[in-house]
Amino acid sequence: MDRRVREMKKRIEQRRKERRYQVRERREPEWGMADEERYGMPVVTYDRYSFESGPHPLFRKEWFLFQTLIAACLVLVTAILFKHPSASLEPARQFVARTMETEFQFAAVSAWYEQTFGEPLAFFAPKKEQETKTASSYAVPASGRVLESFEKNGQGVMIETANGESVEAMKEGIVTFAGMKENLGKTVVIQHADGSETWYGHLGTISVKLYDFVEMGKEIGTVQASETDNQKGLFYFAIKQGDKFIDPIQVISFE
User: Fold this and answer.
1) Of 81, 133, 178, 251, which has the highest C-beta tally within 10 A?
2) Local structure of 245: helix, strand or coil
3) What's this model's pTM, rounded to 2 decimal places?
4) Whether the Cβ atoms of residue 221 and residue 169 lie closer than 8 Å to each other
């Protein structure tokens, strides 16, 4: 009798274990199920939006590598041009040198933008009131006497004026140089919309900065004191068109 009771208990216990195991098997898949799937709703996946599945829309690795390769080739070819002594490469060397030395036409771009869109570029020119245009197209940098002519100097003219006299911009443009130049001392170079440049050298002080937009007649500095007469001042003025300097006296009168 006791034996049969023990066997029945074992069978009942075995059935309980089997039921627990079956219930656990039914619940385990739900742990990995999404909420939508568990409650019978459609499942939304984001595999197609994964950045690992394709290249970033704003960055193409192949194109970037291609551009890097082209840049490296250009640098290599330029180095070969200037290192190789062959005379047949001289035209190419001159072309590269002219290209690297040519100033970017800031003033021309600014004038085109203002003519096209009606307002000057914000980072070049401050807002200015409409002014009545004068009959003269140029402003005299500083009135004085010509001490050294273009024929003697070869590039510009030396003007004698009163000590401390202000030097003004002949035309509006962009300052492409403001600092020290060999043989000219403190110098300002202004680039104009037509591609020409005006040079103002031997200045005592400079009152503009690089890439400033200056209007015609604006003060860019003062003349340098003369070494022989404290009452007198000197400054250098030149006009450059393309690669050549022209005689300023043919354009403007200082007296």
Assistant:
1) 178
2) strand
3) 0.54
4) no
| Identity of the residue numbered 85 | P
CB-based contact 198:220 (threshold 8 Å): no
Strand spans (E) along 149-202 = 156-162, 166-168, 173-181, 185-191, 197-201
Helix (H) or strand (E) holding 145: strand 145-148
Identify the DSSP state of 74: H
User: Tens-of-pLDDT digits for all 255 residues of the chain?
Assistant: 567 767 777 777 887 777 776 656 555 555 555 555 555 556 555 554 444 455 555 567 788 788 888 888 888 887 777 777 777 777 777 776 666 655 556 656 666 666 666 555 555 545 444 443 444 588 999 999 999 999 998 899 999 999 999 999 999 999 999 999 998 999 999 999 888 999 999 999 999 999 899 999 999 999 999 888 888 999 999 999 988 999 999 988 887
Tokens standing for residue 196: 């020409």
Q: How far is it between the farthest Cα atoms of the chain?
A: 142
**pLDDT tens column, 99-143:** 665 555 665 666 666 666 655 555 554 544 444 344 458 899 999
- Rounded distance between C-alpha atoms, residue 113 and residue 116, angstroms: 5
Host H or E run for residue 69? helix 61-83
Strands (E), 182-246: 185-191, 197-201, 203-206, 213-214, 219-225, 232-241, 244-246
Report how far residue 255's alpha carbon sits from residue 161's, in angstroms, rounded to the nearest whole number. 10
Cα dihedral 156→157→162→168 (10° resolution): -40
